[in-house]
């Protein structure tokens, strides 16, 4: 940051340094010279600068796009997802705005579709599409394989229910890409906490075994969530966890402790890595073997509604709660904000 800029520049995002700023305003305010602007900062868009040494993230790119496009513009798509706090976004992807002026410099996508007032909210002074409208546009405009990880991450971060997006799809059935959106929504799941979890879940659907759940909570004797499994089959007590292979100190220890904890509940744990998902390793077959081993065999009858027990929630499709001693299992998005791994 330029000398004095962090303390003195009352830009668009005060108190949120480092952030993009309008170069002309900084020079007029005497906070830097034109020479300093050229030599210590870089232009993201015309007249929109970011200090050298600051990594340009998807959110910072969105802020820069908003400064460039003007107050009448609305951040949309990937940029809106970034402002809503979505993780795992490509920092090199173009920013996206909705405005009437279609001029688009490099690094900016401009859309001119109409937004209803209820589709727009304000965050940090910026006009942004709501989470539901953001998901609506991502699902209909991006390719399927590109949209699913972002939809998963957006739903996980914001707690967005797919039903809100389905309602938008039904109300705007004539808009381009709605059929693509419906396909994307059918595959999206807010329980995923990383792109690897998304890819693993989509791969495991090929097992042909129904009942796969994501973000499965385990409860202790006081009814508090003590841990969660990334995904699995509660009835057969088979969990699938994603090894993100982080270099963070203590991560490998956490992997072993987490495995031991799930196994203490009587579950079998299968770990997968990015290389395993991308390569020839047949993860689906490995999981299928665990599911149909003698140890995990359970009767095929579905539990009746009168088997619900007061004080714990039993999934009717799975037939039994997770964990031990009255533990509880909910659906995919119910506890999406409960983090499994302290390193993620």
TrEMBL record:
Any idea which UniProt keywords this protein has?
Ligase
Instruction: Answer yes or no on keyword Nucleotide-binding.
Output: no
- Molecular functions (GO terms): ligase activity
Q: Which InterPro entries match?
A: AbiEi_C
Chain residue ranges for the region called Disordered: 320-344
Identify the Pfam families for this entry: AbiEi_1
Source superkingdom: Bacteria
Q: In the UniProt record, does the keyword Ligase occur?
A: yes
Q: Give residue spans, biased composition: Polar residues.
A: 335-344
Enumerate the spans annotated as AbiEi antitoxin C-terminal domain.
69-183
Q: Name it.
A: Cullin, a subunit of E3 ubiquitin ligase
